[in-house]
Amino acid sequence: MYSAGYLQYIKTVLRRLNELYSGFDYSQIKKPPIVSPPSQFTGLLELYTNFCKNMGNKENTTKKKTKFCHDFLCHIAKVGCRNIGEINSKYICKAIVKIGNKDSYAVIRSFLGYLFENGTLHNDFSCIIPKYRRPIPLPTTYTHDEIIRLENTVDRTTRTGKRNYAIILLASRLGMRSGDIAGITFDNIDFEHCSITLIQSKTGQPLSLPLLPEIREALQDYMWYARPNAKNNYLFIQAKAPFEKITTSIIRYALTKVFNSAGIDISSKKHGPHTLRSSMASSMVNSDIPYNIVRKVLGHTDPQSIKRYAKVDIENLRLHAIDVPAPSGTFAAFLQGRV
């Protein structure tokens, strides 16, 4: 009896062979077919997309908002709304119920507000969209000993191990995001001046980091003895042909394997590459490094991001803890067994 993972692997191999035989370009992931909203709603989507661009939204943000509105309009059509003039609270409520991703509520609210302001809709339906705020949990962190154990567990005798070790060091010692690690090129690394300079994929802002000796050694070990001879300029590439650049999914998968090999309990904790970034921030904060310095090292542009670091500053938070008030009234009587 074959496992589900093995059967999926066989399907993927057969799909790629079939695409190659049929003359199609290689695609690493089979993307689902795009379902377009009815033609009468297409113009609305284009208007809002242009509005987002003119407001200065970054490309990825605009794509995300367009996708949310696209799905909303598809649901509007499915519940029976045939044209723009028929959009009303009944159709909107039916469509919202079918949307599973509550993060889209704020975008849809903005979308409906925009349609009202530019005169496309005669009523402002944005007020009927439920407000949803995603709960913000404490950042997941690991101790210094756990991070060292994680790094030391990587098998650096293999080609893949050399690559994964360098990736983990970039995340644990420099706090780099997985997207920046996956997209790093040879042009970003200056071995002569021991620096890494890049444009952050999330913020679009420049970031310069020191090329620490242990990271320099790990990168050179991978480049000289493990990296396949590929023509692209990306530093980290896949171990097998066609040797394209790695993805963030590959980084997450590799890190999960190393966590398990290290015997670190991840059953109730996040264990993606971002946890290494949070752990480094926590370590810096606990070493009394000012929040603003931590923010600059991690490449955050928003000054408000320092509030996130305060959440992991446990020792300093203890100093400002409020004493628990003494029980009184009915609660005190309850504790004494009189109620």
What is the gist of this entry?
The chain is mainly alpha-helical and 339 residues long.
How would you portray this structure in words?
The model has no long low-confidence stretch (mean pLDDT 86). The longest helix is centred in the first third of the chain and has 20 residues. The chain has a three-stranded antiparallel beta sheet with strand order 1-2-3, with no helix packed on it. The chain is 52% helix and 4% strand. Strand 2 and strand 3 form a beta hairpin. The protein is mostly helical. The chain folds into two domains: 90 residues; 173 residues, Orthogonal Bundle (hpI Integrase, Chain A).
Throw out a few tags for this protein.
339 residues, mainly alpha, hpI Integrase, Chain A, 2 domains, 3-stranded antiparallel β-sheet, globular
Topology readout:
Elements (H helix, E strand, L loop, with lengths): L3 H18 L17 H16 L4 H20 L10 H9 L7 H13 L26 H10 L5 H16 L3 H6 L5 E2 L4 E5 L6 E5 L2 H13 L22 H15 L10 H14 L4 H8 L7 H5 L3 H6 L9 H7 L4
Antiparallel strand pairs: 1-2, 2-3
Helix pairs in contact: 2-3, 3-4, 6-10, 7-9, 7-11
